[in-house]
Structures are given as C-alpha cells and as structure tokens.
Specification:
Alpha-Beta Plaits, alpha+beta, single chain, about 290 residues, flat
C-alpha cells in the first residue's frame, strides 16, 4: 500500500468557523478527528449550582439545567491553565465560580448577562487575568414577576462532549470526500449546456462550446450532471482527501479546538502504541519461558 503523507490546508478560518482540506489520511483517521473535535476537547461549563433562594416559577433542577447549557467564553490564557488542570487530573481544583442575584421590581427576564464572575480559586490566581463570561449576554434564563427573587452560585468545571453535550465546543463538525470531476469531452455542443444547467451548485460552466469545472470544492457529488450527460461527465472522489467544515459555539476559537483535538488524538494513539508494545514484549517473554528458551 502506498504510504500517505498527511497535510492540512485551511480554506477559511474565522473565530467560530473553519473550512480545511485534510489529505493523505484514511477515512478512519478523518472520522477519528471529527469525533475528537466533537467529544474530546475539554471546555468549561456550569456543572454544579447552589441555589440559595428561588421564588420564580421554575423548579431548582430546571433552573440549574438551563444554566449548564449556557456556553461560557474563556480567554486563551485562562483556557490553557484550565486545560492543564484537567489533563493533570486536578479537575476539582480548578473550578470557576459565578454568581447570580436578581430581584424583580417589575416583571422582567433574567439573562445570561446577569451572571457575575466570583473570586477565582487559588490554582487559577497565578494568572494575571481571569476572563470567563457567557458567550452572549441575552440568553434567557427565567422570567420573574414583581417581587420574585433568585440568588445562586454556579460552579463551572472542565469536561468533554462525551460526558455531556454542554461541554461540546462545536455545533457542527462534518467532512466529505474531496470531489473529482472528470470532463470526458470539453468541446461539445448544446448537450454540454445541459450538463452545466443540471448542476444545482454551479460547479460546471458551458461557454463558447466548451464545458469546464469552475468550482470543484462546491460539488456535493449528487451526480445530477452525470445523469444528464453520462457520456460527457464522470463524478468520483478521492478517498485520501477530505473537506472539513467546523462551526464553533464561541467558547474558544475554532482554531484552538482543532489544535487540541489533534493533540489529544495523537496522544491517545501514542498511548495505544506504547500499550501494544508492552503487551508484545510480555507475550514474547512468556513464549520463551514456555518454550524453554533463555
């Protein structure tokens, strides 16, 4: 089998969105990266809530559940410190506390923007600045009538998406095979115009009697053009090359999500190689003993 040389090339990179081409890998590795992005990147989310007073219409449990699903934006300095805590197994030492205290003088809605950062724990005080806040200030939590009151403390911890969706750093992580469009006859008449018009994504263009590919990446491999012109166009794909689309939730930049996902995936593979190597060494030793070898 031909050896593969992995490469990653970004097509678009924004704070909360990324498109990139991953090539030189198998479908299994591409799917492992997708799963790592979704479920193995540690993020911060409210995990415990101490409700001191709640005279709203919501039960305490429902209120706590809503708080847990509010995505928390973490600056990179704070995130690196929290990630170090998590990976060293000190998850319970690096808890970020937030408080919420609201009393309604008139009917009102309590929003995520009412949450306030409390004093950070000792392991995090080494940072110059602790920056944790909701991704958006207008996420509704509960409506209060006049005179109703909520006082609570919320404790945010690091976790991963496979534990609970509230720790999932992205809303979308998907990939498709890299399309390959083969135009068998570039020079042709009106029949080629039908090929171009049959494509719903504008991938093909017919001009001056010639059919050409103008946007290969936009192809969804629906084969509409091939069905319209089976003797002119062939649709295929490269099973060692993939187009990824990742849409973040604003907790940390998407670029950081991809970096941590790759790092943790490689770490898992390194540990697997180490465990398999140790098992093989044990097996060889036992075989020599059983065979009477030295």
């Amino acid at each position: 089998m031909e050896s593969l040389s992995p490469k990653l090339r970004f097509l678009k990179l924004e704070e909360n969105y990324a498109e990139f081409v991953l090539e030189g890998v198998t479908p299994a590795i591409a799917n492992s990266l997708r799963r790592s992005i979704l479920s193995d990147v540690p993020t911060l989310a409210i995990d415990e809530v101490a409700i001191l007073e709640n005279t709203s219409v919501l039960f305490d449990e429902v209120l706590a559940h809503r708080l847990g699903l509010i995505p928390l934006k973490v600056d990179l300095g704070t995130y690196e410190a929290l990630l170090e805590c998590y990976e060293e197994g000190k998850r319970e030492d690096c808890v970020v506390a937030l408080t919420l205290e609201v009393e309604a003088e008139r009917p009102m809605t309590v929003y995520s923007g009412h949450l306030r950062l409390a004093e950070p724990p000792e392991p995090l005080k080494k940072l110059v600045r602790i920056d944790v806040k909701p991704v958006a200030d207008l996420i509704p939590i509960v409506k209060l009538a006049r005179g109703q009151r909520i006082v609570l403390e919320a404790y945010a911890k690091m976790g991963v998406g496979r534990e609970h969706a509230k720790w999932q750093p992205v809303s979308v992580a998907a990939y498709k095979y890299y399309p390959r469009i083969h135009v068998l006859r570039e020079e042709c008449g009106e029949e080629c115009r039908e090929c171009a018009e049959a494509c719903p994504r504008g991938v093909l263009e017919w001009e001056d009697g010639r059919l050409k590919v103008v946007d290969e990446l936009n192809c969804t491999m629906c084969r509409a053009c091939e069905e319209a012109c089976p003797d002119i166009v062939r649709i295929g794909w490269d099973d060692t090359k993939f187009i990824f689309k990742v849409e973040g939730l604003g907790m940390i930049p998407v670029a950081k999500v991809i970096e941590v996902a790759l790092r943790r995936l490689v770490g898992r593979l390194d540990r697997l190689v180490s465990v398999v190597g140790e098992a093989l060494e044990v097996g060889e030793t036992e075989a020599r003993v059983e065979g009477g070898g030295g």
